[in-house]
Amino acid sequence: MSMPKHEYVFVIPCSGMGKSLGTVGRKAAYRVARELRPQHTRITCLALLTVGDEETLRKVRAHPCISIDGCPSKCAQKNIEASNGRLMKSILVTDTLRNHRDLKPEGIIELNPEGCELANLLAEETAKAVDEVIKGER
Amino acid sequence: MMAIINWKVGIVSCSGEEIPEGTISRIATRLVLEKLRPDETVTICLPLFLAGGEGERTFAKLFPTITVDGCEKRCAEIGTKKYSGKPFATIVVTDSLKGYPSKLNLKSIDELNSEEWKFAEKVAEEIAKKVDEALGREKDAS
């Protein structure tokens, strides 16, 4: 039986300091890494890519990555691309929101219940993306 | 006519998704922006410096900045220096933790427990004091 080339994916959310949608993205990433696909997911600090940390550059070049961005500035996606990371999929929180217009996220330090629900939906979507990437790597 | 410049201080937090200290950085920063000094501060997304945020880079060149880092890698400080200029002040959560009176083992990367919240509030007060210094004011951080 052949072993998978890469057993885990880096799910990298934007820092999202200024918007509720950034918090939604980060919450979703944590849920994937801790509850939904802990065996196949790792998280790393996006800021380490921004400053070109050697160890982190090696990680994102060696392993597949999925970005989650809260806004169209797409900081997570662009930082992975600028680092020559193996970006396999880019997820935008606004796309998920478009499909669930009834959920209006509010709050940055603490999300409202609608924001938490949106984060859960986004986490499920991201978990599926992790599965696809892992499958493709085998 | 004389122009009136409304001086603001930019707070640049590390994203710190991987470690509890990073979560303290982000929450302390938000506490300053939302509660302690809402009229005097703005935040700058650190990864936006690299992702082409000209507005962010220019702001950080023209206005004083305070960097808040979770760990000794000091991404916020290094990133701000690299893309804009020297920050007015730098805060590192692991240093603040050393000076914190009660022994605290930070564990949460998503939702903080009550002890961690108290510590985040303490770090926020530390940031607020630096904001006042940057604006040439003396003010109680409350």
Q: What is the gist of this entry?
A:
With 138 residues, chain A is an alpha/beta fold.
Structure description:
- The complex is a heterodimer of chains A (138) and B (142).
- Chain A has a single domain (9-137), classed as Rossmann fold, CATH 3.40.50.
- Chain A has helices at 20-36, 46-50, 54-62, 75-82, 93-99, 113-137; strands spanning 9-13, 41-42, 64-69, 86-92.
- The longest helix of chain A has 25 residues, at 113-137.
- Chain A is of the alpha/beta class.
- In chain A, β3, α4 and β4 (86-92) form a beta-alpha-beta unit.
- In chain A, α1 (20-36) crosses α6 (113-137).
- In chain B, 47% of the residues lie in helices and 12% in strands.
- Chain B has 6 helices and 4 strands; from the N terminus they run βαβααβαβαα.
- Chain B has 142 residues and is of the alpha/beta class.
- In chain B, strands 2-1-3-4 form a 4-stranded parallel sheet, with helices on both faces.
- At the A-B interface, α1, α2 and α4 of A face α1, α2 and α4 of B.
Fold topology:
The complex is a heterodimer of chains A (138) and B (142).
Chain A: E1 9-13, H1 20-36, E2 41-42, H2 46-50, H3 54-62, E3 64-69, H4 75-82, E4 86-92, H5 93-99, H6 113-137
Parallel strand pairs in A: 1-2, 1-3, 3-4
Chain B: E1 9-13, H1 20-36, E2 41-43, H2 46-50, H3 54-62, E3 65-69, H4 75-83, E4 89-92, H5 93-98, H6 114-134
